[in-house]
Amino acid sequence: xxxxxxxxxxxxxxxxxxxxxxxxxxxxxxxxxxxxxxxxxxxxxxxxxxxxxxxxxxxxxxxxxxxxxxxxxxxxxxxxxxxxxxxxxxxxxxxxxxxxxxxxxxxxxxxxxxxxxxxxxxxxxxxxxxxxxxxxxxxxxxxxxxxxxxxxxxxxxxxxxxxxxxxxxxxxxxxxxxxxxxxxxxxxxxxxxxxxxxxxxxxxxxxxxxxxxxxxxxxxxxxxxxxxxxxxxxxxxxxxxxxxxxxxxxxxxxxxxxxxxxxxxxxxxxxxxxxxxxxxxxxxxxxxxxxxxxxxxxxxxxxxxxxxxxxxxxxxxxxxxxxxxxxxxxxxxxxxxxxxxxxxxxxxxxxxxxxxxxxxxxxxxxxxxxxxxxxxxxxxxxxxxxxxxxxxxxxxxxxxxxxxxxxxxxxxxxxxxxxxxxxxxxxxxxxxxxxxx
Length: 437
Description:
Blueprint: E1 5-6, H1 12-54, H2 61-81, H3 86-97, H4 102-111, E2 114-115, H5 116-131, H6 145-162, H7 167-196, H8 201-218, H9 223-240, H10 245-261, H11 270-282, H12 288-305, H13 310-324, H14 328-374, H15 376-392, H16 398-408, H17 410-422, H18 426-429, H19 432-436
Antiparallel strand pairs: 1-2
């Protein structure tokens, strides 16, 4: 006949013994895992230190060491904090105290159904025995050979990590190049903003080209790639520049100075004089003697403008011919055509100024990157070359002078000076002549 199941009795002494044994086991586990944790730390740090000497890796030595250290500590904590059942701790206590499974049997009996008085007596005996134990024998595990090996390996890996790295100079050089590329891209963005504020309709498109070039610079893999991108942008802008820009500008400037010295009619600008003279001719208010002298004057002006402004010269020559034939109405129409051709020419020159300004910005960016790659001494020499280009521009040296440094010649530099004289409404109406004078 089965004995009735008894209620689980209180075993405070046995519970306390199991708790002490569990703590001792956790310490032992922590000590046992130290060796493997140190070896893992050394493996990660050492591998990174070796790779960073063979490859150009980011400067992350500190982060790698910190991450490996956190992982090693986490490994030790995980080993110590893993679950230890009561029966495992009781078996360890039996082993340390030589109790011959007394406490592990009692724990298993306590945690199960107590059948019969014999089980209760065993549990009671274990509780009485545990109540007399104040501490466990000194059985704390000591660091083993693996710990010593891991400690040595960690020291070697740490020393290798902090030792001078030949790749540090290359990383520093790469950082300087990246800073130079970013600075050049910022300068292109600033030049684009300045271009966008111009009245020239083509300036907005040129500003977008500079912004695109700046973005390509920021995505360049290295300094050489950045220089190649700038060279491509420079070539595209150079193709938009008129090689005869200097003679065109010089012709208009000469016309402006001539009419400022000896006007054709009332008016402060070239175009206003031509328009007023056309009105007089259309009204037939010019005498035959004055018409003959005017025809000779217009012929002289046409000859002077023939190479630089052929369209304007053609219109003036047509007006001179009409006057010689006595057709003042036709001469008035030709003068209005000449005024329109001057407006078109000034607009074209303004567009060329914008292109030259964009080319100058790209040229300056290339100089900055070349300075970064060739050193400060060479960079200073290139800067002086750019200054000479600015000198060729008579007033506006800054943007256009750099443009002339591109190989467009002094014509672009002179162009910046003439444009400065023309300014805004001066160019379209002939005030360029006043500035040029």
